[in-house]
């Protein structure tokens, strides 16, 4: 042990260690800010990490430091934004309450969409079983040809009327394994403990590169995976008007056995609690109205396209 340390009294050693830790923490926070300012890291990704781990460099970042690292947000604008969001400038990201997190995330997602990020180009529509995701997505396919709908790969068998390459790419387990191993899927999940479903990466990346809007209609696990892979994506949670209406839709669809319906409803209860992880909520009272709300989120607010 070096002489200097041996001679230090315990409080002095503590002070040296604390000051080193403070310098390291300050450097880590500065690195986060610099990566956002340089456009290397999405602000939404920073928020995700901060909300998952309050003690991380991201979680220790003050909201003002965070906002001012976003290009075109200065100190004055940041103060005004925080006043609107009812968040104290002294708060750290990891110390925000549930509603404050939600308001800040919605603000940042809207800011990215309005300032040229991919947020308005890649929109994920997710929600519990039978809420109407497929119905709303089909409506968008029919009425909004400008929106590209991603076609998923699945190991389930085609239902009557489903068309290969339009409804899904129907593949066997070996082919699905190959798609995973070769990195050709942006995300994949086993849905309802039954079949595997995944989003082919190539068409999504090509559409975004071409400036098109892409809609992914996938389950909640898939939405979380897309957020990890592409933090700028806009996540939309489709909600039923009421729980009873969700049950009515599931039972009324008549495609699952009563036992399977029960299992899906148990999962739906858990999934509904994930709504706070999403950037926007749309209540599916009426299909055209819900579809319009989703499509509106895909359009830039400033007429960029
Ligand atoms: N706004 C609405 N009003 C009334 N019924 C609706 C509405 N939207 C969808 N439905 C009906 O609810 C049922 C479930 O819809 P859909 O199959 O699109 O759900 P989903 O979310 O894709 O389900 P899953 O995840 O289980 O595949 C269907 O019978 C559909 O016709
Ligand atoms: N994670 C993913 N989930 C997907 C994908 N494509 C569809 N889905 C979800 O699966 C269920 C069941 O669909 P169904 O057509 O068999 O009724 C539904 O919740 C879809 O949203 C995907 O690529 N990834």
Automatic annotation (TrEMBL):
GO molecular function terms attached to this record: ATP binding; GMP kinase activity
Domain Guanylate kinase-like: 120-299
Reactions performed catalytically: GMP + ATP = GDP + ADP
Compartments in which it is found: Cytoplasm
Keyword Cytoplasm listed: yes
Keywords: ATP-binding, Cytoplasm, Kinase, Nucleotide-binding, Transferase
GO cellular component labels: cytosol
InterPro entries associated with the record: GK/Ca_channel_bsu, Guanylate_kin-like_dom, Guanylate_kinase, Guanylate_kinase_CS, IHF-like_H2TH, IHF_actinobact, P-loop_NTPase
EC number: 2.7.4.8
Residues given in the record as ATP binding sites: 127-134
Principal place of residence: cytoplasm
SMART domains recorded: GuKc
Alphabetical list of PROSITE patterns matching this protein: GUANYLATE_KINASE_1, GUANYLATE_KINASE_2
Cited function: Essential for recycling GMP and indirectly, cGMP.
Family: Belongs to the guanylate kinase family.
Protein's name according to its UniProt entry: Guanylate kinase
Record organism: Agromyces terreus
């Amino acid at each position: 042990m070096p002489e200097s340390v041996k001679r230090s009294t315990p409080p002095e050693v503590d002070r040296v260690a604390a000051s080193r830790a403070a310098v390291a923490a300050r450097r880590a926070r500065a690195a986060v800010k610099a990566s956002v300012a340089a456009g290397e890291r999405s602000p939404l990704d920073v928020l995700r990490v901060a909300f998952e781990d309050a003690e991380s460099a991201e979680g220790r970042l003050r909201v003002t430091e965070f906002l001012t690292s976003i290009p075109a947000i200065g100190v004055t604008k940041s103060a005004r934004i925080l006043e609107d969001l009812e968040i104290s400038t002294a708060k750290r990201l990891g110390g925000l309450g549930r509603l404050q997190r939600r308001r800040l995330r919605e603000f940042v997602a809207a800011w990215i969409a309005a300032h040229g990020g991919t947020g308005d180009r890649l929109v994920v529509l997710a929600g519990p079983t039978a809420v109407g995701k497929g119905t709303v997505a089909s409506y968008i396919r029919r009425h909004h040809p400008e929106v590209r709908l991603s076609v998923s790969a699945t190991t389930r068998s085609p239902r009557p009327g489903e068309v290969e390459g339009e409804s899904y790419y129907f593949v066997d387990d070996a082919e699905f394994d190959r798609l995973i191993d070769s990195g050709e899927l942006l995300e994949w999940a086993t849905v309802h403990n039954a079949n595997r479903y995944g989003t082919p990466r190539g068409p999504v990346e090509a559409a975004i590169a071409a400036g098109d809007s892409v809609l992914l209609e996938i389950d909640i696990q898939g939405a979380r995976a897309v957020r990890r892979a592409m933090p700028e994506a806009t996540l939309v949670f489709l909600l039923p008007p009421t729980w009873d209406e969700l049950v009515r839709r599931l039972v009324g669809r008549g495609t699952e056995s009563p036992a399977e319906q029960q299992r899906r409803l148990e999962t739906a209860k858990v999934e509904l609690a994930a709504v706070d992880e999403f950037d926007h909520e749309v209540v599916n009272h009426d299909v055209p109205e819900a579809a319009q709300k989703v499509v509106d989120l895909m359009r830039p607010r400033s007429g960029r396209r």
